[in-house]
Amino acid sequence: MNKIAGIGFNFVSFLFAAFLILQGGLFADNPSHPECLGCHNLHMAPGQALTNDALGINSLCLSCHGEGAVGSILEADVHSGTKYGAFQMGCADCHNAHNNIENYLGGTNIKQIGHRSGSAIITTPNSGVKNVVLESRGNFPGVDQPTLNSFADGDEGGTGYDGVCEVCHTQTTHHRNDNSGGDHTHFVGDTCTRCHTHLSNFAPAGGGTCSVCHSTIWDKFASPNQGHHVMGSSVTEDDCGVCHTEPGANHMDGDLDLRDPDDGSTISFPKGIVRNRTSSTLETDVTNLQNFFCLKCHDSDGAPATKNTTGGGTDLSPFSSSGTVANVDNQFDQINDYHHAVKGTVGNPYCNSSTMEAPWDTGGPHKITCFDCHDLSGHGAPNQRMLRTAVDVDAFAAGTLSVGLGDQIETYCTECHKYDEYGTTGTAGGNSKFEYHGSNQNQHGSGGGNTIGCMGCHGGIRDESGISGNGSATGNIHGGGYSWGSNSWAIGSSTQFFMVGGWNSGWELNTSAGKSGCGGGTCNHPGRVSKLTPGKEYTN
Question: Smallest Cα–Cα separation from 413: which of 382, 459, 380?
């Protein structure tokens, strides 16, 4: 009886071994799955192929490999989605659980990729049965593996698109299995699962840090760039999250998905927004980005909903390392006595076709955007404050004045304001050249020795120390509503047209005479008390 039982057991064992061979190879070839009974049961298996899970192969695999897997077990999920039409690729569609299989090139695949049919194959959703090769994970930080025959090698070996990722794809943006379209250079030869994790359905979910894929942008936060939201090398992925909702469900969805600084909700814009400064027509996406994102942070409360609390950010200093958010939304307010035309047009009679460069000289009072003056990227730029034209703002603010710095201001301002009107010598015309200055001093800019450039008279960056009554030049390049103080000859008067420059100690508009008065500080008008000498008034 024992002999018969022994023969019966050996026969059943033989049948089980034969079954395993038919399924793709002996279990001994796969040290990761050494015990047959971990997945199979000879007599009471509830599932197909003598498996222990009645719900099917996917459920059986995920009972160990699902979310929350411990130790060295890989967390995984089935590959499914709806972006290219509803589809699902189960575990056994890509993997043979029993061993690593030889591929059609004569090498051996890793990670049990492929079914046995003479060589490793995958039955693809749209392209029939195709050979599959995965001998190397490819590039990965700290891992030196060949890029050839990796997840997606872009036909590096000249044998076709047979990597385990690209072998199925026919509609993706990157790495399709033919030349119908798509980009075959996207991190070619890299370890795709670094960003497209098995647990996330292979959706692009980031690789632990945004810099893995966005190194070019990451570099904008460091030297030699001087204009950036996050200062230096301390930038973290949490800093990226102050502005971006990605990585996450929105990652690579074709839009620029940003966070509303006030409530944290997602604001979506198309990628590739451009401000065409050769046109006076403002792009809708540019103005929306400005009004519903930039100015929601650059206001009185900063970014209360999106600040990087992990990195020590606050409402008014939302990144791990940054300065205080400037409230330029308030400076642009149209109720202010002077402001650049961002939130609305400005009724400044001196901004016209005679005084302004194209396209700011067209269509009467012209409206502009933040990005007429600042770089649109938002991450970082070579110039301080992300200005389109280089100005050493830090040197001005610190009091390091020179004709060279005056030149920078002059160049910056005359991007929009005509140099022929404001920077050249000559007698007074109708455009703010002063009659009773000498011809050389008629220049607003540095050619006449003006070490603050246009800001000698107009507010912007610098408060000139020692001048009574002038305390409002710093930060007023956007706009303001300054009334002259008790030490000014123009006490109580509201200044207009940015006339709070570093060399002024007072200015007012004499509307009854149609003239204005300038109270110089270091401009040195000796004997001035409160009004310009009769007969010596400075005309506009």
Answer: 459
19 domain residue, yes or no: yes
| Nearest in space to 280 (alpha carbons), one of 360, 220, 373 | 360
Yes or no: say if 210 and 295 are a contact pair by the CB < 8 Å rule: no
Residue 40 in domain? yes
The answer to whether position 290 is within a domain reads no
Q: Is 381 helix (H, G, I), strand (E, B) or coil?
A: strand
Q: Which residue is listed with tokens 């359905």? A: 201
Collapse the DSSP code of 328 into the 3-class scheme (helix H, G, I; strand E, B; otherwise coil) and give the result.
helix
In this prediction the pTM is: 0.67
Secondary structure class of 420 (helix, strand, coil): helix
355: phi > 0 → left, psi -120 to 50 → alpha, else beta; which?
alpha
Q: What is the total count of domains within the chain?
A: 1
Domain that holds residue 35: 2-65
Q: Of residues 233 and 398, which shows the higher confidence score?
A: 398
User: How many other β-carbons are positioned within 10 Å of the β-carbon of residue 533?
Assistant: 11
In a domain, 254, yes or no: no
Contact 523, 540 (CB under 8 A): no
Torsion angle, CA of 441/443/449/453, rounded to 10 degrees? 130
Please tell me which residue, 401 or 437, carries the higher pLDDT value. Answer: 401
What distances in angstroms separate CA 198 from CA 77, 120, 171, 204, one per listed residue? 6, 20, 20, 10
What is the chain's Cα-based Rg? 35
- Per-residue pLDDT tens over the stretch 183-236: 888 888 888 887 788 887 887 765 556 777 787 888 888 878 888 898 877 788
